[in-house]
Amino acid sequence: xxxxxxxxxxxxxxxxxxxxxxxxxxxxxxxxxxxxxxxxxxxxxxxxxxxxxxxxxxxxxxxxxxxxxxxxxxxxxxxxxxxxxxxxxxxxxxxxxxxxxxxxxxxxxxxxxxxxxxxxxxxxxxxxxxxxxxxxxxxxxxxxxxxxxxxxxxxxxxxxxxxxxxxxxxxxxxxxxxxxxxxxxxxxxxxxxxxxxxxxxxxxxxxxxxxxxxxxxxxxxxxxxxxxxxxxxxxxxxxxxxxxxxxxxxxxxxxxxxxxxxxxxxxxxxxxxxxxxxxxxxxxxxxxxxxxxxxxxxxxxxxxxxxxxxxxxxxxxxxxxxxxxxxxxxxxxxxxxxxxxxxxxxxxxxxxxxxxxxxxxxxxxxxxxxxxxxxxxxxxxxxxxxxxxxxxxxxxx
Length: 397
Ligand SMILES: [Zn+2]
Known about the structure:
There is one protein chain. This protein is of the alpha/beta class. Helices cover about 40% and strands about 20% of the residues. It has three domains: about 5-80, Arc Repressor Mutant, subunit A; about 85-200 and about 380-390, ATPase, nucleotide binding domain (Nucleotidyltransferase, domain 5, 2-Layer Sandwich); about 210-375, Nucleotidyltransferase, domain 5. The strands form four sheets. It has a five-stranded mixed beta sheet with strand order 6-5-4-7-11. Strands 14-13-12-15-16 form a five-stranded mixed beta sheet, covered by helices on one side. A hairpin with a 4-residue loop joins strand 4 and strand 5. It starts with a helix and ends in a 5-residue tail after the last helix. It binds zinc ion. It comes from Ktedonospora formicarum.
């Protein structure tokens, strides 16, 4: 497959039609050319020419035939899961995981390396590049089969230019990850915040498929927000939208790693909830070393200090959700991340607070989906979905 012709940013009408047809095939699973023609508004001759092109490039296959009242039964077209792939990378300061993702958003293979990437240098680019090369060679895939590389990183990312503007966890500031890695690998490289990647996955393949306007909240080591408006990702004028974790929850509150005070993340993400638990233990005269998240989450239900810490954090999180509901009036909120493990001692107060604080009836029939967390695969398949979303499929729906 020669990816450049369909994948260029040069969106001629013809290219847009290729993307549109590919997306219609994705949304329908299997679809005949006549139905594609009706759904797209393109003439049967154009649909035939463009689908032949998609087939030549290995992106679609014929899969059985459709029923027909009379005459020849038309072939059904489907995405080809065994030719073209995206690679999704989860990049953290001490570990990087790469996964090969097929056009259905499923992970084919993954590679996990412990890499110290807490510096923005050529060494970092070489380490990530070698992981990608090893992942490709281990799985008998050729570079021609790879549509592009998606990188999920924490912090504020200028996705347009592939620049990690500020990642406090990685210690990267104005790091041109995308261009440098693209130069090393000779492949398209896209970079986005990890919650935006997850949001891309939800939009293309996950629970967001049936919604036009929904929010994805990732709670764990940090707190981020992915925004889908009118079926498309919204990332703000410079890519900084969705910094939910750095909205102010407590004026003059705890110092956040971003440098500001009182950010919501400092109260509901891992370090925040542990800090609250620790403060409660100290105030209660239980002098002990800093508790761990495991101790908090594995505490028995009648452990009052642990339950209070979870309740306090859950209420603040619920107030935060009410704020974003009031701002966006979404059709649905998907909550995911390692923080799903906080359990009902956290989420019951969250949902109660959301109902209490949301304006008028904005939250009264709002679906809140607690999406189980699949560990690093949630990040990598999200990063792969970013590539598929931007380079193959036009904005869904
Ligand atoms: Zn902050």
